[in-house]
Amino acid sequence: MRSPLFLIVFFLGFFNAQAQIFDPNNLGQGMEDPIEWEASLEQENDSVYQLVFKAFLEPGWHLYSQEEVKIDIAPIPTAFTFSEAPEKYELVGPTVEPDVPALYDAVFEADITYFEKEAVFKQKIRVLDATELLITAEVYFSVCDDEKCLPPETERFSFNIGENRVEEGFTDLEVSDKDQRLTEALNIDVKGVGGVDIADEKEHNYSTIFFLGFIGGLIALLTPCVFPMIPLTVSFFTKGAKTRRKGLVNAIMYGVFIFLIYLLLSLPFHLLDSLDPGILNNISTNTTLNIIFFVIFIFFAFSFFGYYEITLPSSWSNKMDDKASSFGGVIGVFFMALTLALVSFSCTGPILGSLLGSSLTTDGGATQLSFGMGGFGLALALPFALFALFPNWLNSLPKSGGWLNSVKVVLGFIELALAFKFLSNADLVQHWGLLKREIFIGIWIVVGLGLLLYLFGLLRFPHDGPKTKLGKGRLLLGIATLVFVVYLVPGLTNTPAANLKLLSGFPPPLFYSIYEKETDGPLGLKAYKDFEEGVAAAKAENKPILLDFTGWACVNCRKMEEQVWSDPEVFDLMQDEFVLISLYVDDRKELPKDQKFNYQKPTGGIKEIKTIGDKWATFQTLNFRNNSQPFYVLLDHNMNMLNQPVGYTPDSEEFAAWLRQGVEEFNAR
């Protein structure tokens, strides 16, 4: 989630970085195989057996349930099929899988049942005639990590009931002349291919969330609950102490305690996280909690507008104040800091609530929250220490006045806009269709216009003072708001400009739209779904080929299409200079009978090519030694690579430069 509008970015508080590592010297390093299967046979009595399948997964990888998930971009469910022999045996009930609760999946942004580390599936059968009974079982599955999904695969096991023996693999398959011929047809003899190691490394940019928390703390300083406290508190320490040195020490300690108090507020969430690393995502990103956050943010917004105050019981702050007076020394300073935190809650509470909601509704969890809280506390603490060290700076502070209330109202509009972000999250998961992309953007435009009217004095709230001449600050902020609203307007259209790249990750995705799409290609681009057809078109138009290995369940593929391909330069290059061939490696549509074949892997195993996805996944691994998506290759008509293939490339300028390099190389040949 990235935006130059730092006020909004702070509240969402999430920054996701990814890196691609390319190693042209290690052929095949892009291949991944994070799952292993084992099968066994368990006998319950003379006629009842259990066929047992165990999956072992590498850390970070998920295997999905057999239950199909009804969302727009969904994982491929695990599926078991068994050879039919009704006179020999019968299935007893469905295949049983581990009983685990649905958890929030960061890839698909929905509650999904998936398995980690190990999963055991069991199918009960009743044997009617064990004579030469051989049961063939196939497991169709796909695995994903937090960034990508690999193409679906099929594992086969043969259960010999009479001999109580299990064999793994397609032991009954043979590679015929037809199979070899169709395999050779898949090999396009690419020239210049090097091994490509694409390691998507997901890391949390904690320095960024700390900085954004710091910005939030600076904003809180400008509220009526905190700003007037700065000169009063600093004066108390510098003038009330017996010596100047003692006053400076107390003021610095006061700042340190403020920082620690806000940092300590995140500790309970670490306790939850230690019980179950996935519990925060499971609790805080479900539909119910997103709706709760929506209601809370609306409540916060109207508090900032001045219709009511959110305060903690006055007895709390009075008690802390009494403690500060009675103890004195270090303990007294601590209770003074705690008193400030309680008294200022009516202004800092909504900001902290925003930080809590945004941190826990991303996958950074408690650690991300701690960094944000630490930044927030540091921003509040610094002025007390700095002004104690340099008391003359107090003279440069602006006087308290109506501008402090204006800050609260502006924050109220931001809270109102962010409230609909949480409602949008719930809407996307449940597919209610309430906040399609254009409706969401329309609401933000209305909120922006409301802020604009307020800044220009045309909209008033309860705590606003008498009308005064429009100051430079309000004028500049009003102009910035107007620019932002104008920027949002194209988002209401069905054009490439509707992408709103600077707000990527805030509005609902492009496909969640009120508009009907004219083509099945991303962004209206012409995309060939068959390689040979696309190559013929490229030759006819004398254009280079942009080969796009993608998947229906590939989230990073959608990110590339919505956030990078939509860049005007990238879009124009793809539309005018290339023939786009998009090959979906998870397409389960059956191939015509004469196009199905058995593919012998380099490792010696045999894979049945039965679906379109099987074909294109094998095509990718055979020619490019890579099995992750998205994966992009530029080719000429003779299957010469024009430059090095790339994977997920979130920088549109980098991707455009890669495309331009391919065009230049093509024209030079």
UniProtKB/TrEMBL annotation:
<feature type="signal peptide">
    <location>
        <begin position="1"/>
        <end position="19"/>
    </location>
</feature>
<keyword id="KW-0472">Membrane</keyword>
<feature type="transmembrane region" description="Helical">
    <location>
        <begin position="209"/>
        <end position="230"/>
    </location>
</feature>
<dbReference type="InterPro" id="IPR003834">
    <property type="entry name" value="Cyt_c_assmbl_TM_dom"/>
</dbReference>
<feature type="transmembrane region" description="Helical">
    <location>
        <begin position="371"/>
        <end position="390"/>
    </location>
</feature>
<dbReference type="InterPro" id="IPR028250">
    <property type="entry name" value="DsbDN"/>
</dbReference>
<feature type="transmembrane region" description="Helical">
    <location>
        <begin position="329"/>
        <end position="351"/>
    </location>
</feature>
<dbReference type="InterPro" id="IPR036249">
    <property type="entry name" value="Thioredoxin-like_sf"/>
</dbReference>
<feature type="domain" description="Cytochrome C biogenesis protein transmembrane">
    <location>
        <begin position="211"/>
        <end position="424"/>
    </location>
</feature>
<dbReference type="Pfam" id="PF02683">
    <property type="entry name" value="DsbD_TM"/>
</dbReference>
<keyword id="KW-0201">Cytochrome c-type biogenesis</keyword>
<feature type="transmembrane region" description="Helical">
    <location>
        <begin position="291"/>
        <end position="308"/>
    </location>
</feature>
<feature type="transmembrane region" description="Helical">
    <location>
        <begin position="440"/>
        <end position="461"/>
    </location>
</feature>
<feature type="transmembrane region" description="Helical">
    <location>
        <begin position="473"/>
        <end position="492"/>
    </location>
</feature>
<keyword id="KW-0732">Signal</keyword>
<dbReference type="Pfam" id="PF13899">
    <property type="entry name" value="Thioredoxin_7"/>
</dbReference>
<dbReference type="Pfam" id="PF11412">
    <property type="entry name" value="DsbD_N"/>
</dbReference>
<keyword id="KW-0812">Transmembrane</keyword>
<protein>
    <submittedName>
        <fullName>Thioredoxin family protein</fullName>
    </submittedName>
</protein>
<feature type="transmembrane region" description="Helical">
    <location>
        <begin position="402"/>
        <end position="420"/>
    </location>
</feature>
<feature type="domain" description="Thiol:disulfide interchange protein DsbD N-terminal">
    <location>
        <begin position="49"/>
        <end position="159"/>
    </location>
</feature>
<feature type="transmembrane region" description="Helical">
    <location>
        <begin position="251"/>
        <end position="271"/>
    </location>
</feature>
<keyword id="KW-1133">Transmembrane helix</keyword>
